[in-house]
Write a structure and sequence with these properties.
single chain, 294 residues, alpha/beta, Nucleotidyltransferase, domain 5, 2 domains, five-stranded mixed sheet, 5 strands
Length: 294
């Protein structure tokens, strides 16, 4: 929009010209959609009230190659159908967040592909369980008027529980130590968080399986409902989780694109036009990037 101001054009005209240009490029480069041997499927929120987009990333070239509005099975089906059997049968791996809709679609079309439960999303759910335990204990502390606990578990202190222990400052480490000493559920939640992360330090699928089985047993007997629920979800997708040790894929790809798309949305203060947002994602994160033509 700064370019429009410099050239004396209003925002609406800049928007129309930019969209028309991107539509022309998309017709040349994205139809039919590019095929990938190793890909990642993710969902991204673009509006409030659970409005999502489906994003497909080629993890070999590290570019967004397809996206669409919605996150149902039928949405991802459209990508596979556009590829055709000669291409989707060549897909070797699909990394995703464990959504049943994406799993079902991939199993129906890319039958030979190895489905991998992405580490980035697993750690997100683990952090969410820790924060849910914090909120529950904070609510109890308020009811019991435990002002010491309320201060130590407040919203501003939650990041101490979510950070890796090695990244904590000396003051933060002491804060966490005191909190764990006076609140057993938080102590258990932190132990479960750290023991789960040790699974990713294993070198083989067999070692990871043994470590995961031990963690699932700990979570089921922890007395923390949120971790019991998380353990059940992880067990349901254990095969996909362990596939990550057969096909080494960095979770930095999903995390990086997630952050890029969020930043893109913030820069524009949100997008009312879903199609335009999809095109801008291709421009900033995919094959419509003008730098690829230089």
């Amino acid at each position: 929009m700064e370019a429009g101001w410099y050239l004396g054009m209003d925002d609406e005209k800049v928007y129309r010209l930019d969209r028309e240009n991107l539509e022309e490029l998309a017709a040349k480069k994205l139809i039919p959609p590019p095929a990938a041997k190793n890909m990642s499927v993710d969902e991204v929120s673009w509006l409030k009230y659970h409005r999502y987009l489906t994003i497909v990333i080629d993890t070999d070239i590290k570019k967004v190659i397809w996206n669409a509005q919605g996150r149902k099975k039928e949405v991802l089906n459209r990508y596979y159908e556009a590829l055709g059997p000669e291409n989707f049968e060549k897909i070797e791996s699909v990394t995703m967040d464990g959504a049943r809709t994406y799993i079902s679609s991939t199993q129906e079309y890319a039958k030979k592909a190895l489905i991998v439960y992405d580490k980035f999303h697993v750690i997100q759910k683990l952090s969410g369980a820790v924060d849910a335990a914090r909120r529950y204990e904070l609510q109890k502390a308020r009811g019991e008027q435990r002002f010491d606990l309320m201060e130590m578990m407040g919203f501003k202190q939650r990041f101490i529980l979510l950070k890796n222990r090695i990244n904590l400052t000396e003051r933060q480490s002491e804060h966490l130590k005191r909190l764990c000493a006076i609140n057993e559920p938080i102590f258990k939640a932190m132990l479960l968080k750290e023991s789960f992360q040790e699974i990713y330090l294993q070198n083989t699928e067999a070692d990871a399986r043994r470590c995961l089985e031990a963690w699932l047993a700990q979570a089921r007997t922890s007395g923390l409902q949120v971790f019991e629920s998380l353990a059940e979800k992880v067990r349901e997708k254990m095969t996909f989780f362990l596939n990550g040790f057969r096909k080494k894929i960095s979770s930095a790809i999903s995390e990086g694109f997630n952050n890029k798309i969020k930043r893109l949305k913030r820069m524009a203060y949100g997008y009312r036009d879903a199609r335009y947002f999809l095109l801008k994602i291709h421009q900033h994160c995919g094959l419509l990037n003008p730098r690829l033509n230089t």
